[in-house]
Amino acid sequence: xxxxxxxxxxxxxxxxxxxxxxxxxxxxxxxxxxxxxxxxxxxxxxxxxxxxxxxxxxxxxxxxxxxxxxxxxxxxxxxxxxxxxxxxxxxxxxxxxxxxxxxxxxxxxxxxxxxxxxxxxxxxxxxxxxxxxxxxxxxxxxxxxxxxxx
Length: 150
Description:
Elements: H1 21-50, H2 52-72, E1 99-104, E2 113-118, E3 132-136, E4 141-143
Antiparallel strand pairs: 1-2, 2-3, 3-4
């Protein structure tokens, strides 16, 4: 007996969903390009943000120097940075420890200059654009480059 069944058609295998090697490589190249742009930009942003460690420490030292001057008729030198008031300034360095502080002046009874210098090998040691910041008793701000204090 012969049945009237429709003939089954053989169809080619449908393409399986997925990613080809070429598509994957294109995505990896695009991600690599974006990363090569983003990582240096982010690092520069972080270095600029970390400069505030130096700037805020210099402003704290300047304020502490004025208090010290009122009590002692002289400004404190580097040796008195760590000593607690009234014998010193009571400033143990920058908040995050990325800079060292020093105080200089030919005549500390008249003026001072406080300087923050990036610690070599530290987080800011690679920031050669703004490696040092200075602030004088008259409020004059200087740095390695003119755009560092912004």
